[in-house]
Amino acid sequence: xxxxxxxxxxxxxxxxxxxxxxxxxxxxxxxxxxxxxxxxxxxxxxxxxxxxxxxxxxxxxxxxxxxxxxxxxxxxxxxxxxxxxxxxxxxxxxxxxxxxxxxxxxxxxxxxxxxxxxxxxxxxxxxxxxxxxxxxxxxxxxxxxxxxxxxxxxxxxxxxxxxxxxxxxxxxxxxxxxxxxxxxxxxxxxxxxxxxxxxxxxxxxxxxxxxxxxxxxxxxxxxxxxxxxxxxxxxxxxxxxxxxxxxxxxxxxxxxxxxxxxxxxxxxxxxxxxxxxxxxxxxxxxxxxxxxxxxxxxxxxxxxxxxxxxxxxxxxxxxxxxxxxxxxxxxxxxxxxxxxxxx
Amino acid sequence: xxxxxxxxxxxxxxxxxxxxxxxxxxxxxxxxxxxxxxxxxxxxxxxxxxxxxxxxxxxxxxxxxxxxxxxxxxxxxxxxxxxxxxxxxxxxxxxxxxxxxxxxxxxxxxxxxxxxxxxxxxxxxxxxxxxxxxxxxxxxxxxxxxxxxxxxxxxxxxxxxxxxxxxxxxxxxxx
Lengths: 343, 175
Hints:
- The structure holds 2 protein chains of 2 kinds.
- By secondary structure, chain A is mainly α.
- Chain A starts with a helix and ends with a helix.
- Chain A has helices at residues 2-7, 10-44, 60-70, 81-99, 116-124, 126-137, 141-172, 177-186, 199-202, 204-217, 229-232, 242-267, 282-306, 314-342.
- Chain A is globular, with a radius of gyration of 21 Å.
- Chain B is built from 7 helices and no strands.
- The radius of gyration of chain B is 20 Å and the shape is globular.
- Classes of the chains: A mainly alpha, B mainly alpha.
- The interface between A and B is medium-sized, with 29 and 25 residues.
């Protein structure tokens, strides 16, 4: 793979990466919607879910996309046209930028440098601007309230998310996600190196904090105050229809996939398969699939929680972030730092 | 353009200069729109473009850490806080005539003064410094510099920020 890549010119490599990025966003979003939102939840609620379009409802997604594409693109009369129309694209841009740091194999990466997880945390906060644009631009009180709630929540949970990552960074001694995968692949558990050392074992507290904060960042139930349908219709998405609603929808599920992929890389060993040499060419082919499998596993947990727990109240939500998760994450950093120096 | 060309010394970085010019143009237009628009939310959104442009310029200079920090702190936190505050208090849709007005002349004067002072200071101290951009600056170098050479300044800034934080809480709780 590296031989092939180094023979290609810059624009060829770039086109391959753009195509891979599109596939990674659309395929992951599609899989999550079909497997989790349509089928898994249906089974949990003792029903079959979509069964009509295609065998076992497998073409339901295509039908949904077709439906959204034919709908009229409505802009409310008092809305700020440009801000209203641009907002979904800002949110989706943030998703694509997040994807850029993810490694899929020893040579299958978009960018591989020191920025890594720091860049991911920085660009994930850009989506907040898109949400605020949507909330304000719609000229609707439901949208505005939803946007404000979303912002308050995303600011609050960005902190534990970032702090949970710091423990992993201390242990791996790098912010490069590729380096974090290799650190786990080369690691040993008390001298036993057969499965490497996935950081979920040593950073279990960090993993739990990351998963809770991720659930909140994705505004999935129990953290779905911003789109609380019984109070705010659908929050900042209320006034959107057709293609632009579809963009928000894709953004939501693709971001769930990308965040789960980051969690998989940080805590579950990423694309590495125990027993293989980390520089094995084979891993460039099966690595992305392994990572995809871990993403499906983690998003299963996200959607499981989503359809199990009732919604938090705003004060409960803020108290959980500031009074519990942040101190716990700070304690985790201190313990990790001390152990790193002592051991 | 001139500055970037001069800073790179003898051999011109053509691509860098082209992108510097393009980004600088976007930044200037956005900055002007930011201060001339009568809609407060629009002004904040134009400011996003200015700050994103600054981050892009940092990447062109090879300092990725500063670029990402620019995005995280300014776009991700400060602008979001601006927008949050504006929308929480006064989120009128159309233009707002109470914005700016008679203070324009004063603001323009301050801006010109600041540009002159900073321009002279920068040209005076860096006009014959040659910037070497062989490869991006590594994170490790930045943190090594912060925690050895600049440790006193770093600690002073931390104490200052902490004081501001405590001050904000005290002001907010007074009733």
